[in-house]
Amino acid sequence: MTQTFFVLNGPNLNALGKREPGIYGGQTLADIGEMCRKEGEALGFAVDFRQSNHEGTLVDWLHEAGDTAAGVAINAGAYTHTSIALHDAIRAISVPVVELHLSNVHAREEFRHKSMIAPAVKGVICGFGAQSYILALHALRSLTQTTR
Ligand code: DHK
Fold first, then answer.
1. Who lines ligand 1 at CB under 6 A?
2. What 3-state DSSP class applies to 109?
3. 41 in helix, strand or coil?
4. Mean pLDDT of 87-98
5. Which of 10, 42, 90, 124 would bridge with 77, disulfide CB 3.0–4.6 Å?
6. How many domains does the chain have?
7. Domain range for residue 53?
8. Residue pLDDT, tens place only, 55-73
């Protein structure tokens, strides 16, 4: 059966393309979603790509992923730095979760250096622009590939 990976996007990522393009790049979220779906097609997995500005919706989607998906790549936007609820939701599911960021958060303001979700995820990818999403999908693929 085809694996599905959820790609979850948090607040303000719906504004990609016009939001600080020097930091986040010129691609829209729809462009990135299309890139992810094409990568899935090429490599044999499905991508369910979503965005919400609401913390509770992201919590609901993590729970849904725990029941129906093979793994999750999440760019939680600013909730990365604040959300115990997302930390707990990630710990509450047993599928692998990869945290990702377009920008190198460690080269930016100090408040972005701390991730509340990092201790709960398998690993973190940041700083590669839209390519961070593709790298996160590759990470999920290798985490979920069976050797038998
Ligand atoms: C996106 C955001 O919206 C910020 O709040 C994070 C992240 C960084 C990114 O680089 O994708 O601090």
1. 12, 75, 77-78, 80, 101-103, 105, 112
2. coil
3. helix
4. 98
5. 10
6. 1
7. 4-146
8. 999 999 999 999 999 999 9
